[in-house]
Specification:
With about 425 residues, this protein is of the alpha/beta class. The protein contains ten helices and 15 strands. The protein folds into three domains: about 1-110, Alpha-Beta Plaits; about 145-260, Translation factors (Elongation Factor Tu (Ef-tu), domain 3, Beta Barrel), CATH 2.40.30.10; about 265-414, Rossmann fold (3-Layer(aba) Sandwich), CATH 3.40.50.80. Strand 2 (about 30-35) and strand 3 form a beta hairpin. The model is unreliable at about 95-120 (pLDDT under 50). The structure holds flavin-adenine dinucleotide. Flavin-adenine dinucleotide binds near residues 57, 232 and 239.
Length: about 425
């Protein structure tokens, strides 16, 4: 008798999924489908390639069940679920389960064990929040029951002559319960439909204000939104959600889902030190965390470092207010890539130029790192950490593994 055909079946958690369609869009082999109720994975098509894992905004996509291939849940069953079924122990197969045959339908040696591992090796971000993070609420409002927020303010942050149009948008939730923590994001449901007549996807935006509101005591929050008017290749486009948001007027209502995010959360213990590295609108969660600490300065005794990259000062959201913060509260390193007055620098250059502060924080058991901004910044920043560690007698691979395991290394790029 041959070895039993055991698979790790890829499933989507219907309780967490926000039905944003990202996974279905991303899957290169059409293994994901949906109806009005659920997004589901076809066990006979999924090859465990993982392409859908990192784009998923909520992590609902990353669920697996070990089972005999013949007993895989069909999509008809998955479409009816309100929650994931529990892991069921495999039947006693006379010791033959030792054969690891988590193969794909095409016989490729992928399978979810590889899938999970490769997510961890390709992604450097911690799978968990810092131990002292507050407990986040997530997914209180899904796409079928968004909450209406009112625009309390919408201001351009970047200089009028700057090439990027970044807005600070304050949303008021009135009497709706919509609690957020620094580092979480919310989903915006753009009105209308796309070219094929389907409702637009939800777009995610990091919250830029601390948990007690943009204005303390008010049930509101702030976003930092960049108007997308050209795509990543520089071709002119009109980004659906960012233009909608940047054009909102005070008093307009916006459909919001969320909150989302369980790991990119700040530590709350007094000894924690925080290094924040960002470009552009990646500054939103950093503003939220910094403001939380500024409002509670007596509690936060650790150090704060900020590496902030932009083309030049005119393009930096929150540049003015940042400069007003006390130097002993926040150590700021700017990196301007297109400033006629200074040589071209990126955040990774600024990190290499501050080896003392960086190595001290990376070597500190209470040191926490947050990286947010453009996709592509991650590799340069991690390479800079390696250089700085080598110069300080630290082994970056070991430091990184420890930080990841302890929920102290967080990366969010988009
Ligand atoms: P779309 O209509 O979706 O895209 C139009 C075209 O522009 C497409 O070709 C697309 O590939 C391209 N494109 C999309 N985004 C960009 C971009 N940023 N630069 C250049 N080309 C682009 N955005 C913010 O402004 N502020 C935030 O705080 C923020 N936080 C985010 C947090 C998370 C966790 C994630 C996943 C994303 C976040 N984003 C943020 C990005 C945001 O969700 C949207 O992707 C972005 O606003 C573009 O949406 P759009 O509808 O305007 O463009």
């Amino acid at each position: 008798m041959g070895a039993p055909d055991i698979i790790k079946q890829h499933l989507i958690d219907p309780e967490i999924c926000i039905r944003c369609n990202t996974c279905e869009d991303t899957c290169p082999i059409d293994a994901i489908t949906h109806d009005d109720r659920n997004y589901v994975v076809k066990a006979d098509v999924c090859n465990g390639c993982n392409a859908c894992l990192s784009p998923c905004p909520t992590g609902a996509i990353d669920n697996w069940r070990t089972m005999l291939r013949g007993e895989a849940y069909p999509i008809e069953a998955q479409l009816l679920w309100d929650e994931l079924p529990p892991e069921v122990p495999l039947p006693d197969l006379g010791g033959e389960t030792e054969t690891p045959s988590a193969t794909t339908p095409t016989g490729m040696a992928a399978g979810p064990d590889t899938a999970i591992q490769s997510v961890e090796t390709s992604s450097h971000t911690s799978p968990r929040a810092p131990w002292s993070a507050a407990h986040p609420y997530v997914n209180l409002h899904g796409a079928r029951a968004p909450v209406a927020a009112t625009v309390a303010g919408n201001y351009r942050l970047t200089a009028e002559d700057a090439s990027s149009d970044v807005h600070h948008i304050v949303l008021d939730f009135g009497t709706h319960f919509f609690p957020i923590l620094e580092g979480q994001s919310i989903g915006i449901v753009p009105p209308g439909t796309d070219a094929s007549g389907k409702p637009h996807y939800i777009r995610l935006y990091s919250v830029a204000s601390p948990r007690d509101g943009e204005r303390p005591g008010y049930n509101n929050l702030a976003l930092t939104v960049k108007r997308v008017d050209q795509d990543h290749e520089g071709k002119p486009v009109r980004g659906v959600a960012s233009n909608y948001l940047c054009d909102l007027a005070k008093g307009d209502t916006v459909q919001v889902v969320g909150p989302f995010g369980t790991t990119f959360l700040m530590p709350n213990h007094a000894e924690a030190s925080v290094m924040m590295i960002c470009t552009g609108t990646g500054s939103a969660p950093m503003r939220a965390m910094t403001e939380r600490m500024r409002r509670n300065m007596a509690h936060f005794n650790g150090r704060r470092l900020l590496f902030f990259g932009a083309r030049n000062a005119n393009e930096l959201p929150y540049f003015g207010p940042l400069l007003k913060l006390p130097k002993d509260f926040l150590e700021i390193h700017f990196a301007f890539s297109r400033d006629p007055a200074t040589p071209r620098r990126y955040v990774q250059d600024a990190i290499r130029e501050a080896p003392g502060s960086v190595a001290a924080l990376l070597g500190d058991a209470n040191g926490h790192v947050y990286i947010c901004g453009l996709k592509g910044m991650e590799a340069g920043v991690l390479a800079a950490f390696e250089t700085v560690c080598a110069g300080a007698g630290l082994n970056w691979s070991e430091v990184e593994a420890t930080m990841k395991a302890e929920g102290r290394l967080h990366i969010e790029t988009y």
